[in-house]
Specification:
There is one protein chain. This protein has six helices and 15 strands. The protein has a six-stranded mixed β-sheet with strand order 5-6-9-8-10-14. Strands 1-2-15-7-4 form a five-stranded mixed β-sheet, covered by helices on one side. Strands 11-13-12 form a three-stranded antiparallel β-sheet. A hairpin with a 5-residue loop joins strand 12 and strand 13. It is α+β, with helices and mostly antiparallel strands and 280 residues long.
Amino acid sequence: MAALEIVKISRWTEIPWLRHGFSTRKGGVSTVYGGESLNLGWTREDDPTRVAENRMLLRKEVSDAPAMPLVTVRQVHSNRVLAVVGEEAFQGRLETPEGKAVLEGDGLITNAPGVLLAAGTADCIPVLVVDPVRKAIGAFHAGWRGTAAHIVEYGLEAMAREYGSRREDMLAAIGPGIGACCYTVGEEVREQFRSEFSYGDELFRTAAGERGQLQLRIDLWEANRRQLIDQGVPADRIAMVKECTACTFETDGRRKYFSHRADAGVTGRMLNLIGISATA
């Protein structure tokens, strides 16, 4: 089995109590999706016992020892943000015996040490947020619907309400997701963003497709960056991985990330983790 490849934000590694990472395909024990893959989603093509082992491998790689409990949600492309209480996570009340999510929404926040929050993706944009002053964190899943529904803005508001977090203190990271280079959408998506954001038109561009036809494409990285800035997070405190899940390849020619679009819907899932050390 190849070693896991986890993408991290260099600036964040300097925060001693913070644990974080964006997973890739590399490593793991799944034999589908190209073999020896780190599929972290409960997909119908994969063996659940292998998915569970992959999740444990990732937890051990990112967290303290012993591995910190993992909290996920059943993602529904909403702006619903849930606050996680440590006791519930430690007692296993936030997942089924098999390890599947109980909660439904698209954002998680907590100030509880010893817990890993996760956003699952396979093209959608993961946004991780940390308040280094009050030791609070958030993980948000932002597809185009969630982005249009202001999921990141709702997440920051929830952190301010629950933990007293100030936007000017926050650090944010926009992780791997499908880029404007590959994400073709319909006119209805542009209309939705026009109705929600004064800068909506700036997020779109047209490009020629394989057959020369014009395609409309959206930049969800920039859309989420603008939400963070509009909420008061300083631009120089926002890190962007800027790797497209659909067209970023390893040196061996394999795609670095799972991509729902590039893999025609038959693919695995990444988990994008953030947590506070149990010894913080």
